[in-house]
Amino acid sequence: MNRPTRLRNNGVIRGLVRETSLSMDDVIYPIFVVEGEGVKREIPSMKNQFHLSVDMLDEEVGVFKSKGIKSLLIFGTPGYKDHKASSAFDCDGIVQRAVRKIKEIDSEMLVITDVCLCQYKDDGHCCVYHKNIQIDRETTLEILRQVALSHALAGADMVAPSDMMDGRVGHIRKVLDDSGFEHVSIMSYSAKYASSFYGPFREAAHSVPSFGDRKMYQMDIGNSKEAMKEMALDVMEGADILMVKPAQLYLDIIKKAEERFDLPIAAYQVSGEYAMIYNAVEGGYLDRRAIYESLLAIKRSGASIVISYFAKELKALIELYG
Ligand code: PBG
């Protein structure tokens, strides 16, 4: 008789037949850098995540490393915002300084930067608009190119465009190649949905749009084929890694992407997904293994890279539940 339970008899057997596991090689930890000195402030909408000033990285990068983190994704909250997102491509901007600092502290830490305009623009949008009604794609792409180049100049290993403008991956690839940064890779937020689960992040990054929403550029939450189209375009334009975002609620998209494309698939467990699970665990509604399970599910569905605010807890979770 076929008894699947035979292979569950003890931990050793379960380990032998386990198809998916997590390692610290798989994860990227997102951090938020802010202006100021000596700042380490818990983000109210994202418990146990912090706003850090650049000087604090001296200490924090060591802490991240001791927790097994090998890759960081940098988000900046700049000192000033304007119509053309100047602080996003300022060579002394918050992200550029943070990148230089991290590389100075630990040259082996992989540094990835989010390339977008929303935190840096006075209206909180990821693009420039013509009269607040139509996307000014040309101007937006020109700014994004400058942002990506400034990150590469600061020493970023990888840039991650999250704006969802058509053609941005190709434009960024070209400016990097033309400027001697052929070695800098692009992780594209290819299938980025107009999700409600970015709310805590927008509070953390001060990037709530002042009018309208992001539905003119981020994907409709009901679409799946369209995600494949976005990814195919990014492959053609030269992306190195394709990302699905959010992750937890979009495992079907991750699965489909993994089956269809030969590039590594990354998935971003976003701020709302983090907050939901974190608060349920802290509130005593779920046990801590739920965190591990949430990350494992993302990997099992086909993502080889998981971006998560839980990355700094993963080493301990693997020891307990891996
Ligand atoms: C910037 C950006 C956002 C996130 C990552 N990059 C916010 C948004 O698109 O509104 C969300 C990350 C998260 O929620 O954890 N465009």
Structure summarized in a few sentences:
By secondary structure, this protein is an alpha/beta fold.
List the uncertain runs: none
| CATH architecture group name | Alpha-Beta Barrel
Mean pLDDT: 97
User: Under the CATH scheme, which class?
Assistant: Alpha Beta
Rounded to the nearest angstrom, the radius of gyration is 20 Å
Bound molecules: ligand PBG
Ends distance? 30 Å
How would you name the CATH homologous superfamily? Aldolase class I
Number of domains: 1
GO molecular function, one term: porphobilinogen synthase activity
Binding site for 5-aminolevulinate 1: 202, 214
Catalytic activity: 2 5-aminolevulinate = porphobilinogen + 2 H2O + H(+)
Binding site for 5-aminolevulinate 2: 271, 309
